[in-house]
Amino acid sequence: MNNNPIGIFDSGIGGLSVLREIKKLLPNESIIYVGDSKNVPYSEKTDREIFELSKSIVEFLLQKRAKILVVACNTITVYALNKLRSEFDEVAIVGTVPVVKTASEITRNGKIGIFSTKKTAESQYQKDLINKFASHLEVLNTGSNEIAPKIEKGEDELEYLLENELQPFKEFGADVLVLGCTHYPLIKDKIQAFMGTNIKVIDSGPAITRQVKRILEKNNALSNSENPIYTFYTSGELGHMASALERLSFKGKVLSYG
User: Fold this and answer.
1) Cβ neighbours of residue 220 closer than 8 Å, sequence gap 6 or more
2) Domain extent listing, the chain
3) What pLDDT, in 10s, does the model give residues 15-46?
C-alpha cells in the first residue's frame, strides 16, 4: 500500500474531468492537481514551450511525493509525453489520448469523429493513432481553438459556437464522436444535446482511470486511506479554480502554483 497522492496536471481546469473519473473508481486515493491556467491554452504554444511548462509541473509534483502522474491534457500528451517519460523514468506517467480504439469498436456505420484542439488534431501522434486503430474506417479529425478557452473561463453560453464547430461531424455522418480535449467532457451534456441521441459521445477519462488503477495494483501502491486529501494548485486566479471546483462539487484546498 502507498498513501502518497496521485499527481494530475493540465493546462487549466480541463483535467478536472479526468480527476472526476479517478475519484469515482479510486475513492481512497489522495490527489494533487495542478492547473496551469496562467498559460492556457497550450495549443497556441510551441512544442518546446509545452515541454518546459509541463516539465516544471512534473518536478513540482515529484517534490510533493506523487506516486504516479497523470497528464490530463491531450496537447501535452501528444507533444511532450515521450520526453517527459524519458526524463523522469523513476515514476509512471499516464497520458491522455483520444479513445480511437474504443470508437472503432463501437461504431455501427464505420464513421467516427475526433474533436480536439487544432494543435492536437494536426499532430503526428494523433494521425498515427488513427492509422493504428481506424485505418479501415472513415475518420473526421478536426479541432477548435475557441471552445476550451471559453470553458476555462466558465462561460455557459456556448450553444452557437458549438453549433459551428460540431456541425461538420453531423454532416459527415459520424455515429461516434471522440472528445480529444479534457476540457470538453466538462460540457459533455451540451455536446451530446447538439449531436443528438443517435451519436455516441465518448471521452478518455474512464480509460485513463482504469490504466492508473492497473499500474497502482501492479506496483502494490493502492491507497487504503479512509480520509483522502484533495489539493488543487493553480497558476491562475485562486477564485477561478475555486469556482470550477464548486461547479463540479469537488472539495479541497486551493493554493497558488508558480
Assistant:
1) 1, 2
2) 6-96+206-256, 100-203
3) 999 999 999 999 999 999 999 999 988 888 99
